[in-house]
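quick one
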Amino acid sequence: MRNKSQFLRMKQEKEKIAMITSYDYPSAKMAEAANVDMILIGDSLGMTVLGYDSTIPVTIDDMIHHGKAVTRGAPDTFKVIDMPFMSYHISMEDTLQNARKMYQETGAQALKLEGSGEVTKAMESLVEAGIPVVGHIGLTPQSVNVLGGYKVQGKDRVTAERLLEEAIEIEAAGAMAIVLECVPRQLGEMITSRLSIPTIGIGAGKECDGQVLVYHDILQYGVDGVPKFVKTYTDSNHILGEAVQSYVNEVKNRTFPEEKHTFTMDVNMLPGE
Ligand code: KIV
Ligand code: NA
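structure w/ 3-methyl-2-oxobutanoic acid:
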C-alpha cells in the first residue's frame, strides 16, 4: 500500500496519481486489481448507489457501511473516505468523535473534508490526533445550494485568489493532499505549482498531480449523463442492460435454463405415486 511519503515523492518526480471512487466490494476489487494509487470512498455514493439527488442526505452510518465493504474489497490500497454533510461543522468535539468512528471502523487511511476556514481548523485537530486528512476545494458538492449549482469555480481574479489562499491554508493545516474540483486548468496548474502536497484534480486540468473520477461515471453505470470533465470508458448501462434483458427474455421463452444448467437423477429414485 502506498503512503503519504510516497504520494509526496510521486509529486516531486511528476508521477501521476490515479484515484477512483469506490463504494462496495466489487468496485473496490476492480480498483485494486487495476493498481489505482488511491481509492476515494466518496459521499457521491449518495447519488451513485443510494439514488439521492445530492450528497446532502448521506450519513456517517452510510459512509461506514460502504467504507467497510470497500476495505474488504481493496485491503491493500490507500483509501480516503469523505466525512459527510455537517459531520465536521457542529463542534470540534463532535468532529473528532465522528472522525474517530469513521477512521477506526472503516480502516480507511485518510479522511476528506470539503472547504476551508473553520474546516481548516478541524483538519488541524484531526492531523494532531493522528488522522491523515485530504482537503477538497473549488466545487464542493456538500455546499451546492450555497454555491448555486454545480458550476466551475475560480474563473475571476477574486475567486481564483481566494482558492489559492484556501489551498495554501489547507496545506499549512497539515493536509496530505488536496482535491481541486471544477476549476479552470490554469488555476489548477498554479495551485499545483504553489503547493508541496499533491493536488488531485477532477475537472481541474491535466497539470494537477493526480486525477480522480467517479467509478459509475467512467463506466456509465446507472448514471443518466455525465459532466464535461468525465471521460467515459465503456457503456455499462447498455452492455449490462442488454444482458439483463436477455436473461428475462430467455426465461420467458424457455431458452434458459439449458441442459447444462440442470441437475438430473435416476428417475427410479423418484418417490412412488
Ligand atoms: O464524493 C466524491 O466522489 C468526491 C469526488 C468528486 C472528488 O468527492
Ligand atoms: Na465527496
